[in-house]
Write a structure and sequence with these properties.
Blueprint (H helix, E strand, L loop, with lengths): L6 H13 L5 H11 L5 H16 L2 H4 L20
Helix pairs in contact: 1-2
Length: 82
Amino acid sequence: MKEHYQSEDIHRAIEHALRYQAFEAGAIERILRAKATPRTLESIRNERAGRELQKALPKSLSGRWSNTASYSREERPCRRRP
């Protein structure tokens, strides 16, 4: 499920299912299809690339950068060229 939906959407769907005592995974998937927007291919690729980068970096460097995959383009600071 996390491959196709944001964690917040999955959490909301589980809460909704608990309110109605719908404990099957199929019920949660149906709630997600009805109420959540699937993740974009771009966000899935960015997350995978971030994981691969973390694996490739030496352990001493891997903790220095925050995960920027969750930021949208609008949230990232712009650098102006001189």
